[in-house]
Amino acid sequence: MGRPESPVDTAADAPTPAADAQPHAAVPGRAPRRYWRYPAAAVALLAVAAANFVLGRQSAYDAGRSVPSPAASAGPAAGTGRQLRFGFEDSVAGWAAAWNAANLRADLDAGLADTGQRSLRLEVTPDAGAPPAIGTDAVAGLHPGGMVTVRIYLAGSGSGQIRPYVQDSGGGIDWSATPALPLTRRGWTTYDWQVPDVTVRRIGFEVHNAGAADLVIALDTVIW
């Protein structure tokens, strides 16, 4: 009867691990070191630093350039074509009495302005049933139904009203449907009025003086 073969000594045949692959001896009370984690952590730190550098460069670039906001780019009159037509800086700019000229004096006022350094000063005598009017035929760009904006200053303690009109292509006077502006509060007032639905040949204002003394007002910053 044959002798059973001796079992193979597998432990003797197994290769001996390299010395640098041997685990480090454990120190009581301390977790084993994991040196293989440090290269990954270093790579992660370098990636974060690179990202922060790029973001910093981009922020510096954005801070250095001027990027207007949508509101600033649009402007208050964007898309409407409205612009300043009269600032009365050099002359009365074609404005003259339209009727009852004897009751009106118009001149530049270098001591009062809403835009620039001057305005159009109007001195109006008491009505006596003949209120004067002042206007201009420099109406390029103004169309039927358009809106006109003007700044009006009331000086002193007088009172009255100012009423806008349009002279059409046939010479007729067409009053604006916008109510007349009462002249009762001293200082600057913004007045918006609508052009009647007619062909515009001339625009202007009739000024009523409800007091017993001359009424002094100023016109400036005419826009359409």
How would you describe this protein?
The chain has 224 residues and is an alpha+beta fold. It folds into 2 domains: 19-64; 84-223, Jelly Rolls, CATH 2.60.120.260. It is 17% helix and 33% strand. The chain has helices spanning 10-13, 37-64, 70-74; strands at 84-86, 96-99, 104-109, 119-124, 133-136, 147-155, 160-168, 173-175, 181-183, 187-194, 200-209, 215-223. Strands 1, 3, 4, 6, 10 and 12 form a 6-stranded antiparallel β-sheet that branches. Strands 2, 5, 7, 8, 9 and 11 form a 6-stranded antiparallel β-sheet that branches. The longest helix is centred in the N-terminal third of the chain and has 28 residues, at 37-64. It starts with 9 loop residues before the first helix and ends with a strand.
Topology of this structure?
Elements lengths: L9 H4 L23 H28 L5 H5 L9 E3 L9 E4 L4 E6 L9 E6 L8 E4 L10 E9 L4 E9 L4 E3 L5 E3 L3 E8 L5 E10 L5 E9 L1
Antiparallel strand pairs: 1-12, 2-5, 3-4, 4-12, 5-11, 6-10, 6-12, 7-8, 7-9, 7-11
Keywords, separated by commas or semicolons:
alpha+beta; 224 residues; six-stranded antiparallel β-sheet; 17% helix; Jelly Rolls; single chain; 2 domains; 33% strand
